[in-house]
Predict the structure.
Amino acid sequence: MTRRRALGLAGVAGAAYVAGPLGTFGGGGDAADPQAAEAASSCVLAPEVTEGPYWVDVREKRSDVRAGQSGVPLTLDLYVYRSDDSCEPEAGAVVDIWHCNASGLYSDEAANGTSGQTWLRGYQETDSTGHVRFTTIFPGWYMGRCVHIHLRVRTFSGSSTTYNFTTQLFFDESVAAAVFATSPYSAHGTTPDITNSADGIYQQEVKAGNVLMPSLSGGTSAGYSGTVGIGLSGLPASSSNTAASSSGSGGSSGSGSSTDTAVEASLVSRRFIHAGDRRELVLGLKAGERIAAEANLMRGGRSVAHKRIAALAPGRHNLAVPIGDATPAGAAQLKLTLTDRAGNSRTIRKRVAIPNG
């Protein structure tokens, strides 16, 4: 074991958590929760854990990080949100991933004989919906760790780093077993020596209440794809969010806005779920008076999903907006109109990311 590796493992015990109320993307166990993992825009606060010993700031801006490495293809859609700012997407954040190859080796690591190589490393900048997509391979495994991918989110002001967050993604062990039975993984060994439940860093995320485990679709032949939402606290103010908060009646260029009226009602939460065989956007509403509520998901100036309730009594309610099978995943704008009995209305606009069906 190299000194660098030993220091990385020693750092596990002292890894920090992000404080705050936590929900679950991966169910907190060894199996992923499909609804929660795909509901990227539910904006659950992500746990912060150690970067590990193999971080290298290679500054390779690319979506496809494979660089010739063989393995089962893996596409990851990551969404970065401000968990302490009404779940607004964070545009312009720098998101890095890095992980080992099918043989359990990292690039640019002298002990692995890979100095100067940069495969399975790279970064992307989040778009206006907080989204980045990486094409990579399903990670292999190495002694002392369960299967994982490292992830870092940073923001910059010029050359100065203004925010720096690291975490790790984990994987369903049944999927890993299917992958490791195939070539080239099988040459390294079909069974990791550490399970998820025995991995110290995985257990940190369990204790934090939110294991970042993408729910994967696909298979070993064509590859897998999955979605994860990364909710972050304490991000610095950004121009995109500042512009959104000052956009008045809420043009579509802002990440979120609402009209300023006397209607005693508000949007308190939003999350995507799978209800049976269909997707729904569930809106949590709080009404201080009797209201009507109408929700539209908009793309290109037209509605792709709609729900209206003519009368809601004072109190808390869930408004479920069904999303048709023909509606593809991706960015959209939520337009929510709340109207009181006097005819006053309040319109709330939020950018959202519709998950895969």
The radius of gyration is 21 Å.
